[in-house]
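TICKET: design request
STATUS: open
ATTACHED STRUCTURE:
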C-alpha cells in the first residue's frame, strides 16, 4: 500500500469511530504531514483529547508529550525540571528528557492558560523549532503541536501564539441524530484498537511522507488562484498575515499528497475554510465563502456526503433493524439522489465514490448481502 493510501486508511479508521469528527481527524493528519500546528476549539467533553491520543498511538516511534495547563502551571512541567547537577557548576539549564523540547508530537490542553514564561518558549519552539536551555539553543524535533481550548484567547498577549496554529476546528456535541450511536461508541473504539490489522505508521513513514509532500508542485496558476482567493476573502473579513499565507503552502501540498497527486489543484484551496477564520462563531461563514469561491458544487457535494456520513453511522450502530435505522436509510437515499446529479470534478467524484462504497459495505455487513 502506498504511503498516501496508508494515511487515508488511518484517517478513515479513526474518523469511522469518532462521531462527527472527520474534519478534525483529517486536519490533524494534514498538520502532521505539513509540519504545521492545529487547534481544536470547543466545549469540554467533545472527544478532543481522545481523538488526538488515538492518532498518536497509531504513530509509532514518534516521541509524544502532552500536558494540560492551568494558570498555576510552571515551566518545569512543560520543559523539564532544573538540572541540580548543572546548578552545582553554576549553570542554569533544564533536564528536557521526556518533555516538550524533545517531542515530535505535542498535545497541549487548555493551551492559552500559559503564563509568559511558558508562552515565550512556546513561540520559539513552534516557529523556529528551538528551545533556549540555559546558555544553549537546542534544536527541537517538533513536527506538530496540537492545541485544545474551550474558547479563543481574548488576551492580546496570546495573539502571536494563536496565529501559530495554521488549522483550526470547532468541536461541538454530537448531534441528536447520532446520540444513540454515541452511547455505543466506547465499544466501537475498543474494537477498532484491538484489531490486529489496524493501520499503523512509524517515524520513518512520516519522514518519507513529508519528503513527498515537499516535492508536490505548486504551479503559477495556483498562485494566481490564491491571489484571487485572498482578495475576495478579505472583502468578507477573512484575512491572514503574509507569514501564514506562505506557511499554508505546505498544507496545500499535503492536501494534494493525500489525494495521490504530485501537483496542487484548485480543489485543494478548499482547505482555507479551516485556515482563514479567527472567531469560531464565523467558522461556518468562512466555509461558505471559501466553498463558494473555490468550487461551489464541490462544497455542496461535501455537505451531502457529511450528512450521509452522520446517518450511516447511526444506521450501522442500530444494526439496520430499528425504526430509526430505517428512517436514517431513507434519508441517506434522498442525499444520494441529490449527489447523483452533482458533478464536482475529480475531488467530487472521489467523495461520491467513497461514500457510495461505505454505504455498500455497511449494507453488506448489516444485511449479509452485496449491492443495494
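STATUS: resolved
RESOLUTION: sequence designed for all positions
ATTACHED SEQUENCE:
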Amino acid at each position: 500500500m502506498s504511503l498516501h493510501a496508508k494515511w487515508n486508511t488511518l484517517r478513515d479508521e479513526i474518523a469511522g469511530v469518532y462521531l462527527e469528527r472527520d474534519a478534525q481527524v483529517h486536519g490533524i493528519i494534514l498538520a502532521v504531514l505539513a509540519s504545521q500546528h492545529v487547534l481544536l476549539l470547543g466545549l469540554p467533553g467533545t472527544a478532543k483529547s481522545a481523538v488526538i491520543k488515538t492518532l498518536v498511538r497509531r504513530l509509532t516511534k514518534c516521541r509524544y508529550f502532552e500536558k494540560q495547563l492551568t494558570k498555576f502551571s510552571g515551566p518545569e512541567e512543560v520543559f523539564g525540571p532544573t538540572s541540580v547537577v548543572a546548578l552545582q557548576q553554576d549553570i542554569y539549564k533544564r533536564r528536557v528528557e521526556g518533555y516538550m523540547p524533545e517531542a515530535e508530537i505535542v498535545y497541549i490542553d487548555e493551551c492559552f492558560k500559559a503564563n509568559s514564561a511558558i508562552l515565550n518558549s512556546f513561540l520559539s519552539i513552534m516557529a523556529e523549532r528551538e528551545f533556549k536551555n540555559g546558555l544553549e539553543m537546542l534544536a527541537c524535533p517538533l513536527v506538530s503541536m496540537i492545541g485544545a481550548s474551550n474558547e479563543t484567547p481574548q488576551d492580546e498577549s496570546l495573539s502571536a501564539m494563536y496565529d501559530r496554529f495554521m488549522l483550526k476546528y470547532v468541536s461541538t456535541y454530537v448531534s441528536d441524530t447520532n446520540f444513540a450511536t454515541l452511547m455505543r461508541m466506547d465499544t466501537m473504539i475498543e474494537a477498532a484498537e484491538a484489531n490486529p490489522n489496524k493501520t499503523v505508521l512509524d517515524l520513518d513513514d512520516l519522514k518519507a511522507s513529508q519528503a513527498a509532500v515537499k516535492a508536490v508542485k505548486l504551479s503559477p496558476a495556483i498562485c494566481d488562484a490564491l491571489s484571487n482567493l485572498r482578495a475576495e476573502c478579505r472583502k468578507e473579513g477573512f484575512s491572514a498575515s503574509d507569514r501564514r499565507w506562505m506557511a499554508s503552502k505546505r498544507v496545500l501540498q499535503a492536501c494534494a499528497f493525500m489525494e495521490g497527486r504530485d501537483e496542487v489543484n484548485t480543489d485543494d484551496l478548499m482547505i482555507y475554510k479551516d485556515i482563514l477564520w479567527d472567531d469560531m462563531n464565523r467558522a461556518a461563514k468562512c466555509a461558505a465563502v471559501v466553498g463558494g469561491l473555490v468550487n461551489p458544487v464541490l462544497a455542496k457535494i461535501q455537505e451531502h456526503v457529511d450528512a450521509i456520513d452522520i446517518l450511516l453511522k447511526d444506521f450501522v450502530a442500530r444494526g439496520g433493524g430499528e425504526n430509526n435505522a430505517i428512517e436514517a436509510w431513507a434519508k441517506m437515499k434522498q442525499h444520494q439522489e441529490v449527489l447523483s446529479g452533482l458533478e464536482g470534478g475529480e475531488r467530487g467524484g472521489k467523495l461520491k465514490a467513497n461514500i457510495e462504497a461505505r454505504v455498500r459495505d455497511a449494507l453488506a455487513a448489516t444485511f449479509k448481502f452485496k449491492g443495494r
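CLOSING REMARK: DSSP finds 16 helices and nine strands in the chain. The first strand starts at residue 38 and ends at 42.
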